[in-house]
Design brief:
This protein is mainly alpha-helical. It is 77% helix and 6% strand. A hairpin with a 5-residue loop joins strand 1 and strand 2. It is extended.
Length: 407
Amino acid sequence: MAKFTYRAADQNGKHQTGIMEAPNEAYVIAKIREQNLRPLNISKSEEKANRFTSEIHLGKIFQRVARRDVMDFTAKLSTLADAGVQLDRCLAISSELTENDKMRDIIKEVRRNVQGGSSFADALGRHPKVFSRLYVNMIRSGEAGGVLESILQRLSGFLESSQELREEIVSASVYPILLIIVGALVVGLMVTFVLPKFTVIFENMGADLPLATRILVDFVDFFKRSWFFVIGGLLLVYFAINQYLKTDEGRLKWDKFKLKMPVAGQLIQKIEIARFARTLGTLVRSGVPILQALSIVKDTLTNEVIASSLLNVYSRLKEGGGLATPLKETGCFPALAVHMIAVGEETGSFEAMLLKVADTYERDVKIAIQRAMSLVEPLLIIVMGLVVGFVVFAMLLAVFSISDMPL
């Protein structure tokens, strides 16, 4: 198929331009007229490549599309669609407003596919690394039901809620990581530039280092002599563990262990339950059948134990019946979530209750993270204080020993 550049006019005489993939010019004319437009000029596009464009494309290879880019694109698309703008023009405007070059190219390609006769969902589905199964299936249900505008609004809200929870977790971990890095730099500078000077002084004076200073010096010397083996051994252990965790057995055992951890286990469970309820509630409310929605939700969960438990839930639902009882039998879902879902099924507010479950557990996650950080931060300060304090104590002990030596 060739690419054609066209210029057309609407009923008000306003001109529009675009690019369409088609077998011939007659096909382009037919598609333009289907959009209630009058074709003015159609020409076959010629692809030109030069050194400058090659450098641009090379730069785009290393650029990635982040979740926030998809969220911003969906929010803009939802606003434009809600204002009554046609999908083709929505995509054209969104591509101009997008700052990410790679995302802009993807939107343009989606627009070309839509202009070529493809459905919006199928055009998005050609980019699985950018648009998830959840995203594509919600768009498909919106197109089938003729409610694409409302689906885009729900999808935009869903992405915003997921992004807020993710950013809450990331921002909570910034301070502890920064504290560890700063502490490690301080200790590294002291043992690299200050400690060797004390060693030289004591060697010249023929005296023995104090015990604490000698322990520190021996440790630093050992690391200097064996750093390659230490780091290499750690990398080998990490590689071996990482390879094992990629297997089904390893990932399942690791996820079981994470759920049994004293504090982190409950936090991980609440994050997964919130993601499960938010995704399932959004899909069902958007018109996706419950069995298909459950299959999609399984792929969005990161904990293999909880995700695998949904296989039994799927089988039970296929046989007929509600969702609450199979969820309870898995043992992976808290009693509060199961009871809320059961009430939703009984009262006919299943989708709304799932979203309430998501709101409840997302709020619990934020509170749990704040509490955990309030404990982790002082604990890290104490640990780093002990490490830095020992280094300082060892050096001060050496200083005092010098002053006590006979001249």
